[in-house]
Amino acid sequence: MKVSLTGTAETLLATLCARAVDARSPHPLLGDTSAAEVVERLDYDFAKLRVTPATAVGIALRARLFDRWVRAFLADHPESTVLHLGCGLDSRVLRIAPGPGVRWFDVDQPEVAELRARVYPERAGHRVLGASVADEDWLALVPADRPVLVVAEGLAMYLGEEEGPALLRALVRRFPLGGQVVFDSYSRAVVRMSGPLPVLRETGARMRWGVDDPRELPDLVPGLRLVESVKAYETADPGDHRRLPLGLRLRLLLDTRVLARLPVTRRVGHISRFAF
Ligand SMILES: C[S@@+](CC[C@H](N)C(=O)[O-])C[C@H]1O[C@@H](n2cnc3c(N)ncnc32)[C@H](O)[C@@H]1O
User: Which of 5, 179, 192, 217 could form a disulfide with 148 if both were Cys (CB 3.0 to 4.6 A apart)?
Assistant: First the structure.
C-alpha cells in the first residue's frame, strides 16, 4: 500500500516503525505485533527516518505507560468514551481491546484517517474521525454523555503554543461528567533545538509547543488538575534493562540512572495524567 504523507502526518511512520522494531526484537517491551505487520504492508522508505533500536526502546516504553494508564481508567470507567488524538497508525485500540461499554474514537488529520481506515478493519464501538484537533468542530461529533479519557501520544509538541491549551480548554468544556487527559510533552529547549532530528528533517514537520513543567498547565486551563507526571527517562520498570542485549542495556541504564538525574536532562520531557 503506497503511503504519501508529508509534514506532521508523516511523523506517524517513525513511531509505528519504532513499535515494529520493538515487536520484531527478541526482547520486546511492548510487543505490538500489528505494528510489525502494518510496516510490512506499507510501501514507504522507513530507513530514511533512521529509527534506531534505542529509539524503539524509548517509544515502546512510552507506549506501554500510556497503555497502562488507559487500562486503569477503563477498569474504573467501563462505560466511557476514549478520544485517541493524533492516533496515527497506532493499534492501541487493538492492544487494549476495550469492553462493550467503551466508545473509542481515533482522531487524526483527514489524510491519516483515510489511510488508517484502509489499514485496520472496522471494530464495533470504534470510529475514526478525520480532523485537525486544532479546529474544535470535530468535538461536536463526540457524545458528551459519559466520562472521557483523552489520550494523545506524540501529538502535543506539533500543536501551536496557543493551540495546545485551547484544545485542553475545549475538552474540559465539552465533557461535563469529567475525565482524564494523558499526553506527553517536551520542554521548550527540546522543542527549540529539535530541527536536526532525522524525523523532522525528512518529513518537514516542526515541533512548536514546549512545556517545561506540566504543573504550569492548570493555570492555563481552568478545571484541569495534574494527577501524576513521569519524566521521559523514567518510563522503564526496574527489571527492563535485564531483558535487553548489552548495548541497549547500558543505554537504558544511562537514561534511567544518569540522564534522569542530571539537572540539564532530567526535565527534557514528561508524560502526564490530568483530571478534570
Ligand atoms: C509522532 S506521530 C504519533 C502518532 C501516534 N500517536 C503514535 O504514537 O504512533 C504525530 C501524529 O499527530 C498527528 N497530528 C499532528 N497535528 C495534528 C492535528 N492538528 N490534528 C490531528 N492530528 C495531528 C499526526 O498526523 C501524526 O499522526
Answer: 179
Distance 99 CA to ligand 1 centre (A): 25
pLDDT band at 267, cuts 50/70/90? confident
Amino acid in position 56 = A
Ligand 1, residues 4, 8, 34, 129: which to mutate, most atoms within 8 A of Cβ? Answer: 8
User: How is the chain split among helix, strand and coil, in percent rounded to 5?
Assistant: 45, 15, 35
* Alpha-helical regions (H) of the chain: 7-10, 12-24, 33-41, 53-76, 92-96, 110-119, 163-174, 188-192, 198-203, 217-220, 246-253
CA-nearest residue for atom 20, ligand 1, is: 132
Q: How far apart are CA 34 and CA 159, in angstroms?
A: 28
pTM for the full predicted model: 0.96
**Could you identify the atom of ligand 1 that is nearest to the CA of residue 134?**
19
Which amino acids bring their CB within 6 angstroms of ligand 1? 8-9, 11-12, 15-16, 86-88, 90, 108-109, 112, 132-134, 153-155, 158
The three cell numbers of residue 66 are 500510556
Average pLDDT, whole number, for the chain? 96
Q: Which atom of ligand 1 is nearest to the CA of 90?
A: 9
> pLDDT tens across 171-225, in order?
999 999 999 999 999 999 999 999 999 999 999 999 999 999 999 999 999 999 9
Residues 186 and 33: their CA atoms lie apart, in Å, by 28
Q: Quickly state the pLDDT bin for 122 (edges 50, 70, 90).
A: confident
